[in-house]
Queue: 2 jobs
Job 1
Amino acid sequence: MTTSSAAPYAPPALAARARTSALHGFPALLSLVALVAVFVISVVNQPGILSVTGLTLMLMSAVPLVFAAQAQMLIMSVGDIDLGIGALIGLVTVIAATLLRESPLLGIAMLTAIVVVYALLGLIVQKRKVPSIIVTLGMSFVWLGIGLQILPTPGGATPDWLTAIGRWRPEGVPSPLIFIAIATIIGWYLSRQSRAGSRLRALGSNQATLEKAGWSLTRTRVLAYVLAAILIVISGLLLASQTRSGDINSASNFTLMTIAAVVLGGGNFSGGRALPIGATLGAVTLGLITVLLSLMSLSSSLQSAAQGAIVLAVLAGRVVTERLAR
Amino acid sequence: MNTNLILPPAVRPASGRNRRVVSWPAWGWSFIGVLAVWALIIIARPGAPFDPIVQSLSLAPFLVLVALGQMLVITLGPGNIDVSVGTIISMSSYVSVAVGASAGPLVGVLAAVIAGAVAALCSVLAILLLRVPPIIATLATSLIVSSATLLLADASRNSADASLRVFVNAKLLGVPIIAILVVAITVAIALMLRHTRFGLSVIAVGQSARAAERSGIKVWLVTALAYLASGTFAGLAGGLLAAFISPSTVLGTSYMLDSIAVVVIGGTLISGGRAVPTGAWMGALFFVLLSGLLNLVGWSIGAQNILKGVLVVAVVIISATASGTAKSSFDRSLTFFTSRTSIKETRNG
């Protein structure tokens, strides 16, 4: 994770090192603790989880969320926020369940168009200096409208190859774990391993330096949006592969969940930080909480309140741990 | 409304010949939009040219109420936005009806207002104590509120009080009384923004939270009051909408984006520091007339959503270019964020 800027003259004492690492070294620590706690509670509630099938069922809903969280992480690393992510994933499921089956070429063209639109959004945000929050919020209604035009009520059917991905059950390993690992590796490579990733983070933390180093700010922001759009499309396709149908509202809570996942994982709103493992941990935690709430047979009316309260509680926990670490 | 009055003199162009006696009002573009849509409606359905305006005057006040609260929040500066207004409206519509059934319609509306304020208090606590960014805080609040709405919806099967129903539909000389009341509230807010300590503080915080803090303004208090006002107005709108339409779990859903769009279309700077109460009216009339026009022409809900979204994005892009302040407001938003982190870093030593 991020290298700590400890004092250079002497090796820091153990307590100081623990403190620094709690603050900088592994900001996703809190998320990990929360994940373990949620998992233990789930196991106590439902011991059947501790099997390949149990884990598969438990983690399945987290797979699209993890991909979406990686996309949100890329956008947030350049200092923006995407409020259209939930509606867009819904639209991708709609496209997957209708156009992609009936006329694959048109479906693929639509998905490509989404990526192109995201490139334009990046261009607009950079060139016109408009807040990404409002632009993506406005776009979320465009996505919603397109989705309602194509498929007014949930339905349709996904193409066979997509259904096959959703049905894939390897021996011995829960398949969601594999997808989650792939998403994390993609996010890690894009944001922390590749050169483009360091440019993205530089755009979020210090634009002036990036510009003086000779890089185009516009191209960098457009790159972030394009990469995010590709991850969002993958997320939508995976969600459709699980539900085997299209529903424009199927991912409406993803907008908050992805932002919360990134923040839980140690990310921030000012940009310059990209923590793919943290984002994954955050997303899996939130996904598990959703499953746990339904396992505990909580009234369905109360589930969204519980989600909101838990997000606030974990964010509060983060504030407390950061205070203590100081 | 000449919004230049609220800006300190230093912001004005120094050279005298650039100063116009009558400046283009910030809500000018939305006014042109209202006229254009009105003209289109008259073309689409000739005869009775004032009917569409009168009709929109009965629906627009609710949107204006919500937008005024949203405007105060947005004026606080970059990052400030209230996305809980939609769910608060739905919840308070049930509160208004449920309380109104046993304690009378006036108490019912009052209870709706209080419910809105309580929901906003939840956001405020999260923003101030937990240091959660407003958008997350209000989203989390709206999740909690939507649960409350579902519980209330299960519990109550009442419908709105007859006298409240008469009141929201009452007209004075052809103009809905609600519209007149909301105009009065708009004037009050406009005066408050120009002349009271709180109003000027909201604008000062929006222009520079740091400078406002240094000059002795209690930024936290101003922030809290703005969000509380937003929740209160949403609660009032929901309480009245319960009688105008009827309580439903999706009653307020469209108000979330609409209120933001109306505020932005009306000329209020999305980056904060400039509030245009008149613009809320212009934007709301524009939106209500537009959806009337689209229904008249026979557009589907999906197509209407697409147009609304495109319109919001287009207006944000155009206003960012036209106002000429986009660059500076963006820089301000950057300093807003970087200043927080730098404070943190210095504390870390």
Job 2
Amino acid sequence: MTNTATLQITTPSDREIAMTRVLDAPRSLVFDAWTKPELLKRWLGVRGGWTFAVCEVDLKVGGAYRFVWRGTDGNELAMGGVYREIVRPERLVNTEKFDDPWYSGEALDTMVLLEQNGKTTCTTTIRYESLEARDGVLKSGMETGVAESYDTLDDLLASIRSTA
Amino acid sequence: MGNPLDVTFAALADPTRRAILARLATGDASVTDLAQPFEMSQAAVSKHLKVLERAGLITRGRDAQRRPSRIEGRPLAAATAWLERYRTIWEDNYERLDALLEELKTPTTKQTTAKQRGHTERSHTKR
């Protein structure tokens, strides 16, 4: 089990991007870390001076979440969505959409948590509305990679984040 | 599908084409060579090779009989570079999550830190 910390990224279909990572904690804690604002603020997208300006979670089916990140230069990145399925602590499905949409339509995020011997395998799958939308995300990642811009880097980060 | 990376990812979306590339990474091969291990007709292999060729992932030899396929590194490297970056960003997120989970597993640490954080966040809000 030496490779437990390795993050795996795959494209399971032409509309999806999936990520798998093993975490050394029971899945109830992992689920909380993804769904409680006070915990999300500690880790999701908070790098290079970016912090949460808004982190609201209404954790019920049909309930909304709203995230706004703010950089040290005052730039903001805002997104949100609605919870579709909540099966604590094993499954979470929600939509995601950015205020400044840079891929067409809404994406659907599915997180599945599997626990074994106290470790949790976290798989998040982002399903875009089309192949073009997904490849737009891929292309954007490539361009920002060349530009080396931290702002757009965080745009990318937030865009590919998968559950609330 | 005008962007080269779009074409690359579309070509790579198919598991058979990825397997063909994996085979070509070990050396050039003809359609006949490729059809055998994949238990596919030569026509089916040819179709996949056309997609890979259009994406610039392979080139094909001039030899009229064999037309051996050869893997081309550049588009694949571009696609890999993107995935590598994506991976780095998320690994960074997950490393912060690792630290947080470690803390949550120890109840006493959790309480202290939660209080400290509460103070910090309030003072930020006032500013």
